[in-house]
Design goal:
Elements lengths: L3 E7 L7 H12 L3 E7 L5 H10 L4 E4 L4 H7 L2 E2 L1 H6 L4 E4 L5 E4 L2 H12 L8 E5 L3 H11 L5 E5 L3 H11 L7 E5 L10 E4 L22 E4 L8 H8 L4 E4 L1 H16 L6 H8 L2
Parallel strand pairs: 1-2, 1-3, 4-6, 7-8, 7-10, 8-9, 10-11, 11-12
Antiparallel strand pairs: 3-5, 5-6
Helix pairs in contact: 1-9, 5-6, 5-9
The structure holds 2'-monophosphoadenosine-5'-diphosphate.
């Protein structure tokens, strides 16, 4: 029996952990899956996607810098892709229409709630950043009905624009925007969704946002403790997590969409941590 073909498309893409994660899922579940990495030319994402599905490919993950292109290219979008404004998962439906989904938000929520036993309902959440990564996860976070979500960003106008966009989904959750320096009271959960650490920077937030029980989550991950998490530890945070679990959880959700099977994620997270 030949394996069904899946891939991650990006540029660059050689660093992607998705092929490793999905091959671990395939061995674990016994699903007949082959998963490769495809580097698309920067000016021809659409052609790459078309070619992949024409040759019989079953599903794609999409990474930097094509997530918004994937969203635009799709014939149909799931609700969570719609609110994310970006897609990381593509597949064809029974009628051959290209469907875009976004599993990033589901990934961070599952990592927090199931892997780290963090309650999001009624939590006071501080989110740092207002770019694509944050927009991608806000819908599923809001769906957990936190008491408040405070969006702090270097460019406050971008945080305000996200507040306007997500207000209709807010329900009883207090949703607000501000600069980094403004929040000074302790939060239950702090999520770093900025790309500051790529430049070795730290968002200049007050240490007052961290209390003994604050959960600090950096959407980035690295072999060593991330710059942001190192700072949080120095401020006395005790519950500090990086985004490796989110990465594996978003992959598991894509796998479930494509194959109808949910792989166990803990062994895969552990395996990757030891790589
Ligand atoms: P991504 O897809 O990773 O979210 P993005 O859309 O470019 O990338 O957003 C990057 C986010 O990190 C933004 O919130 C950005 O702040 P601005 O909106 O003010 O640009 C934030 N960011 C990037 N570099 C930063 C730095 N050195 N310090 C603080 N915030 C930074």
């Amino acid at each position: 029996m030949t394996n069904d073909l899946y891939a991650v498309v990006g540029n660059p893409v050689s660093h992607s952990k998705s092929p490793r994660i999905h091959s671990l899922f395939a061995s674990e579940t016994g699903e007949s899956v082959e998963y490769i990495a495809i580097q698309a030319p920067l000016d021809d994402f659409a052609g790459t996607v078309k070619h992949f599905f024409e040759r019989g490919g079953k599903g794609l993950n999409v990474t930097v810098p094509f997530k918004e292109d994937a969203w635009k290219l799709a014939d149909r979008r799931t609700e969570r892709a719609e609110s994310a404004g970006a897609a990381n998962t593509l597949y064809l439906d029974d009628h051959g229409a290209l469907v875009a989904d976004n599993t990033d938000g589901c990934g961070i929520v599952r990592d927090l709630v199931f892997n780290h036993a963090v309650a999001l309902k009624d939590a006071r959440i501080l989110v740092l950043g207002a770019g694509g990564a944050v927009r991608g996860v806000l819908g599923p976070i809001m769906a957990k009905h936190p008491a408040s979500v405070t969006l702090a960003n270097r460019t406050v106008g971008k945080a305000e624009a996200l507040v306007d966009l997500f207000k209709p989904l807010a329900g009883a959750t207090r949703l607000s925007a501000c600069g980094f320096e403004q929040p000074s009271e302790p939060f239950d959960v702090i999520i770093n969704g900025t790309s500051a650490s790529l430049q070795g920077d730290l968002p200049p937030i007050s240490p007052g946002v961290i209390a003994e029980k604050t959960v600090v989550y950096d959407m980035m991950y690295s072999l060593q403790t991330t710059t942001f998490n190192q700072w949080a530890l120095e401020q006395g945070a005790q519950y500090v997590f990086d985004g490796l679990g989110m990465l594996v959880e978003q992959a598991a959700e894509s796998f479930r969409i494509w194959r109808g099977v949910s792989p166990a994620t803990s062994p895969v997270i552990e395996e990757l941590r030891n790589d």
